[in-house]
Design a protein that fits this description.
The protein is an alpha+beta fold. It has one helix at about 50-65; strands at about 1-5, 10-15, 20-25, 30-35, 35-40, 40-50.
């Protein structure tokens, strides 16, 4: 399952049986820089029981921190 939200691509993936996580990457393919460290993809480590919940968590993460990820420094 994938979704685009507020300039980010979100992809849910199953890391284990019924353990859904989400990957976030900028839609423009520019890496995210956090405290000088480059991340091409962010993986959220919270395990959810379904892919929709993982996507919803990623959206709330973007709402909270997304602006910090839109510039290179």
């Amino acid at each position: 399952m994938a979704r685009r939200y507020d300039g980010f691509d979100i992809e849910s993936f199953e890391a284990g049986r019924d353990l859904w996580h989400a990957r976030i990457r900028r839609a423009d393919s520019v890496p995210v820089v956090i405290d000088g460290v480059v991340f091409p993809v962010l993986e959220l480590g919270v395990a959810w029981s379904d892919p929709e919940a993982a996507i919803a968590h990623a959206i709330s993460h973007i709402d909270r921190y997304g602006q910090r990820y839109t510039t290179a420094g």
